[in-house]
Write a structure and sequence with these properties.
Helix content is 43%, strand content 14%. It is built from 13 helices and 7 strands. The longest helix has 14 residues. Strands 1-3-2-4-5-6-7 form a 7-stranded mixed sheet, sandwiched between helices. It has 266 residues and is of the alpha/beta class. The chain has a single domain, classed as Rossmann fold, CATH 3.40.50.1820. GO terms for molecular function: hydrolase activity.
Length: 266
């Protein structure tokens, strides 16, 4: 088994399909496990996912910053250090901004770009909602504010007594409110960052795809779809009915079909 170089936790699923490897960039306070429903049900490409410091309590090393700019550099360096070519980048939420900035750094190694409910300039008007929902201080706020902005139908969780019991037991305020995640969270709705991401998006020339949920708690779906059409050349845009920010969890069959059609398209 080949040695994979990266200073933080990573996921590698070896499908013996290294020609067009997928590399996944997770979202705010998420992890390499976020897209497991896809990773564990996909055999057409090797799959990588890498962690970013500051998220889920992961402490930075080597003087790394807690910022999207740093994450883009880490992602680009991961691709270079592991000599990955023809990479298919997938970015969810914050990871969408990360892959845009990383593209500029290693564009000769990228073959396709896939955006899943990505952070972008059109989400700035929802900044107040973001700060009110993404940092729950109690379990009640977790189930009444945080979960509903991520999912189209939060009742699939709240009506599940076992899920409620386990998550209430495991809920920790410090998982959602701590110095690292607050620093990162406050840095995201920044006009300069959004402008830099937009400038990077305008330089993308490889085939690209955007997937949104029908109802996203922190992004305006229609505004985002139009923005991407204007900003990235020849981007394919889709939204999946009865799904939210985590559209891959709520309608995996449609999600997988869209990715399969796009990834396998010559």
């Amino acid at each position: 088994m080949k040695e994979i170089k990266y200073p933080y936790p990573f996921k590698f699923i070896n499908n013996n399909k290294s020609e067009y490897p997928i590399v996944f960039a997770h979202g705010f306070n998420s992890s390499i496990n976020c897209l497991d429903i896809f990773a564990n049900n996909w055999k057409d490409n090797d799959f990588y996912a890498i962690s970013f410091p500051g998220n889920q309590g992961l402490k930075p090393i080597e003087n790394h910053e807690i910022s999207v700019y740093q994450y883009a550099q880490l992602l680009a360096q991961f691709i270079i250090d592991n000599d990955l070519k023809n990479v298919i980048l997938i970015g969810h939420s914050m990871g969408g901004g990360t892959i845009s900035l990383a593209y500029e750094l290693v564009k000769d190694r990228i073959s396709k770009m896939i955006y899943l409910a990505p952070m972008n300039k059109t989400s700035l008007p929802k900044e107040e909602v973001y700060f009110d929902t993404y940092f729950p201080r109690t379990f009640n706020e977790f189930i009444t504010k945080f979960i509903p902005v991520l999912y189209y139908d939060a009742s699939i969780f709240t009506n599940d007594s076992q899920w409620m019991k386990e998550n209430k037991k495991n809920f920790k305020v410090s998982d959602h409110i701590n110095d690292m995640i607050m620093k990162l969270g406050e840095s995201l709705p920044d006009p300069k960052l959004m402008n830099d991401i937009e400038m990077a998006m305008k330089k993308i020339t490889v085939p690209s795809m955007l997937i949104m949920g029908e109802k996203d708690g922190v992004m305006k779906r229609d505004n985002c779809l139009e923005y991407f059409k204007k900003t990235i050349k020849n981007v394919e845009t889709y939204w999946i009915k009865k799904t939210g920010h985590m559209m891959f969890d709520e309608d995996f069959d449609t999600f997988k079909m869209l990715l399969k059609n796009f990834i396998n398209k010559k």
